[in-house]
Design goal:
Restriction Endonuclease, alpha+beta, 9 strands, 193 residues, 7-stranded mixed beta sheet
Amino acid sequence: MADAVEAAWPVCIAPLQLKKGCMTHEDHITNHLVEALIRTKGVPGRIIPQHSLLTVAADKTVTLSSYIDFVLTIGDDEDAYLACECKRLNVPYKSGTRGLVGEYVDDGLMRFISGQYSNGLPLAMMLGYVMNAHTDRARRGLRRAMTVRASAVRLKSERDAPVVDGRPLRFFTTHICASGQDIEIAHTLLGWP
């Protein structure tokens, strides 16, 4: 999936380059990425944007609890999917660049660890849209944020993939979920040109 995302990234951002200010919010970028992934046909399954999660309460009432940015399903089992959560990093504002690593960890990664997303599944994916293209700085910021929050994110291990010039940074983290089982998160940091 990471290879497909990497291949679709230039297709995704091409139409957004002309509208950088108004179209560079996470949801706009994710919508374009999902459409590019579908169009390039680089994955062997079905991509579902804004995948809704239903929760059944003890009294058997069903509520819509949240949405995952997108999921990849293969086959007919609706309970088996690869969830992908997307967050912006290193976002330039008039007052300066904000790393937003806390949001990436607290509002993204934690949803997997708590079991809100991918409950019972062994693998998930996080995408970081690095809005100033400094993926190395974003990685350092995420490493620091996860170190500071190591017990909260129940970090078991962390490893970087080999760095290849001109390609997105990838790394992997393994966490102990609230349920007690491990989940591996594949992270890809995509530089916005």
